[in-house]
Amino acid sequence: MLDKLGAVKGRIFNIQKFSVHDGPGIRTIVFLKGCALRCRWCCNPESQEFKIQTMVQNGKPKTVGQDVTVDEVMAKIIKDMPYYKRSGGGVTLSGGESLLQPEFASAILQSCKLYGIHTAMESTGFASFDVIEKLLPYLDLYLMDIKHIDSEKHEAFTTKPNKRILENARKIAECAKKLIIRVPVIPTFNDTEEEIEAIARFAVSLPNVNEIHLLPYHPFGSDKYAALGREYTMQHIVTPSEAHMEKLKAVCEKVGLKAQIGG
Ligand code: SF4
Description:
Number of domains: 1
Number of helices: 10
Order of helices and strands: HEEEEEHHEHEHEHHEHEHHE
Strand content: 15-25%
Bound molecules: iron/sulfur cluster
CATH topology: TIM Barrel
Strand order of the largest sheet: 5-1-2-6-7-8-9-10-11
CATH architecture: Alpha-Beta Barrel
Largest sheet: 9 strands, mixed
Shape: globular
CATH class: Alpha Beta
Helix content: 25-40%
């Protein structure tokens, strides 16, 4: 079984070890290339295109994207087994959007489960539910972004409407082992108490969902846009203050959710 899964190929742009974000404990994060959305604030713009790209940083070209087998990914993952065991950690698929490479994502998740490793996926859920459904048996935790309840505003800032995402959130909530809703809090997009309350009310209406994570905007990926020959359009945006994030957290708690700032 491992042989067959190990031969599956996919495209990644990074593997980050010893992460304490994006799921419990110490984790290895596998970043898959390709995303259907184009969020204006995206801190991994090199994740968006599926094609292999060149970034020019400090005058030096750097290739972004690499085709690998599941065996190659697993060889890196299993090196940290003792850390996962001691910390209650595991592996998180991130991106990009793993749902654009479903066979590859599924083979990594299945391989992790054969090793007894906890699995999580960070995803915006923008795919056919048939694709999502096939991954759910191998996922311990689905970390799903809900960015805005207003579809027009969602489309204006991400290039895609939210209907499919909201519909899938309900289906995922019904079938997933655990679903946590995550909200990137972006000033000028979704950072008012009313906008966060609308997302929180949607989250609490989902079956089996009781937790929300609010992720404050940060500009850390902004330099990468120039490195890709692209313009960063959010340079005027300021990271929300701690006090404002606390206010938004309180809004989510009032609605009945367990809320945390950061993921
Ligand atoms: S969904 Fe995530 S990876 Fe895709 S463009 Fe938006 S922020 Fe970037």
